[in-house]
C-alpha cells in the first residue's frame, strides 16, 4: 500500500469519495481498481457523477450509457460496498438523480423476468400484494 494512503488509513473517520466520470477514468478496470483500493483504505466510493455540460470541457465528457456500463460491470465482480451510486445532476437545480442498469426485463401477474449480472434471464415469483400497509411516521 502506498505511503500516500497511510494518513487516510490511520484516520478513525470513515470517508466517502465522489468523482466525476471523465474520458480519462471511464474504463471498467480503472474504476474497479480505484473503488477497491479506496475501500481498502476505508474510503467508501459513494458517487460517480456524470460530467455536467460545462463550457470548455466537452472533450472530457462521456455518455450516460458509459457510466451505466461501468456500474453494471462492477456488479458481480467486486464488493457491493465498492460500487458507487451513478448520478446525474438534473438541469435547473433539481438535484441528483441516481441512474442504474435496469435489471427487470418484463413483468406479469405474480412474476418478473430479471437479468442477472451474468446477462442470464430468470423468472422470479413476485407475490401480489393487495394493498400497501401505511405505518405512522416515526419521530
Strand segment tally: 7
> Strands of the largest sheet, in order across it?
1-2-3-4
Q: Cα distance, first to last residue?
A: 44 Å
H/E series: HEHEHEEEEE
Helix fraction?
10-25%
Radius of gyration: 19 Å
Strand portion: 25-35%
Largest sheet: 4 strands, mixed
List unreliable stretches of 5+ residues. Answer: none
Q: Could you please describe the fold and organization of this structure?
A:
The protein is of the alpha/beta class. The chain has one domain (3-101). The chain contains three helices and seven strands. The chain has helices spanning 6-10, 28-40, 64-74; strands at residues 15-21, 43-50, 85-90, 95-98, 104-108, 111-115, 121-125. The strands form two sheets. The protein has a four-stranded mixed beta sheet, with helices on one face. The chain has a three-stranded antiparallel beta sheet with strand order 5-6-7, with no helix packed on it. The chain is globular. The protein starts with 5 loop residues before the first helix and ends in a 14-residue tail after the last strand. The model has no long low-confidence stretch (mean pLDDT 85).
Helix/strand layout:
Layout: H1 6-10, E1 15-21, H2 28-40, E2 43-50, H3 64-74, E3 85-90, E4 95-98, E5 104-108, E6 111-115, E7 121-125
Parallel strand pairs: 1-2, 2-3
Antiparallel strand pairs: 3-4, 5-6, 6-7
State the main characteristics:
3 helices, three-stranded antiparallel β-sheet, four-stranded mixed β-sheet, 139 residues, alpha/beta, globular
Task: Write a compact overview of the structure shown.
With 139 residues, the protein is α/β, with parallel strands linked by helices.
Amino acid at each position: 500500500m502506498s505511503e500516500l494512503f497511510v494518513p487516510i488509513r490511520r484516520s478513525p473517520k470513515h470517508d466517502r469519495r465522489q468523482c466525476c466520470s471523465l474520458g480519462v477514468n471511464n474504463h471498467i478496470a480503472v474504476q474497479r481498481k480505484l473503488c477497491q483500493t479506496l475501500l481498502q483504505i476505508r474510503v467508501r466510493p459513494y458517487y460517480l457523477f456524470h460530467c455536467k455540460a460545462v463550457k470548455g470541457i466537452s472533450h472530457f465528457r462521456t455518455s450516460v450509457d458509459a457510466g451505466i456500463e461501468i456500474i453494471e460491470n462492477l456488479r458481480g465482480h467486486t464488493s457491493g460496498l465498492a460500487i458507487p451510486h451513478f448520478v446525474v445532476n438534473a438541469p435547473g437545480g433539481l438535484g441528483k438523480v441516481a441512474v442504474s442498469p435496469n435489471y427487470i426485463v418484463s413483468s406479469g401477474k405474480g412474476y418478473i423476468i430479471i437479468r442477472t449480472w451474468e446477462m442470464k434471464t430468470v423468472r422470479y415469483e413476485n407475490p401480489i400484494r393487495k394493498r400497501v400497509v401505511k405505518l405512522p411516521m416515526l419521530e
